[in-house]
Write a structure and sequence with these properties.
Order of helices and strands: EEHEEEEHEEEHH
Helix content: 10-25%
Number of helices: 4
Number of strands: 9
Distance between the termini: 43 Å
Radius of gyration: 15 Å
Strand order of the largest sheet: 6-3-8-7
Strand content: 25-35%
Length: 169
């Protein structure tokens, strides 16, 4: 099955399931669905950063400071966070990611409920070549410097800015 064929729960403004659709249709029609964003820290308190492959359905070839993706139909946010983190990092046996906050991402074309998590990954990573063109572990200061230099996925950038505001509370 291709990524475009994956079945997603379609949700309303309150994150209640109102239907189901293939991912490709959800993206094409701007149907609201669910996503997870997971900050992955290494043992040295550096953040996993990567550039997405050119074949991604949305935001191809852009940088991201989160691993994650869509929540499958009938899947919980917590289940999706662990599954997506292990898949994209290419590891197994991660601790369960810690939930931080949820927000509604909307940019005029795309809309999804986004749950932000973080996890410590002390394992050697082997990112999926289908998902990741380049990766590295960067300090938060280095990520901050790169915010103006690299082209970032807009949903990840929105989540990162909300995370900074969340931490200041």
């Amino acid at each position: 099955m291709s990524a475009a064929d994956e079945i997603l729960d379609i949700v309303d403004e309150q994150d209640r399931v109102v239907g189901r659709a293939p991912r490709g249709e959800a993206y094409a029609k701007g149907l609201r669905h669910r996503c997870v964003f997971v900050l992955a820290w290494d043992a040295g308190d550096r953040l996993f950063v990567h550039r997405r492959t050119a074949t991604k359905l949305v935001f191809p070839s852009l940088y991201d400071m989160f691993v994650g993706g869509v929540v499958g139909a009938g899947e919980s946010y917590d289940e999706a966070a662990l599954r997506e983190a292990e898949e994209e990092l290419g590891v197994s046996g991660l601790p369960r990611p810690a939930p931080l906050f949820k927000f509604l991402y909307e940019n005029g074309t795309h809309t999804w409920w986004s749950y932000v998590y973080e996890v410590r990954c002390a394992l050697p990573v082997n990112p999926q070549v289908e998902e990741v063109d380049w990766h590295g572990f960067l300090s938060e200061d280095e990520v901050e410097r790169r915010l103006e230099e690299w082209e970032w996925v807009p949903d990840g950038l929105a989540a990162y800015r909300r995370l900074r505001a969340h931490r200041l509370r």
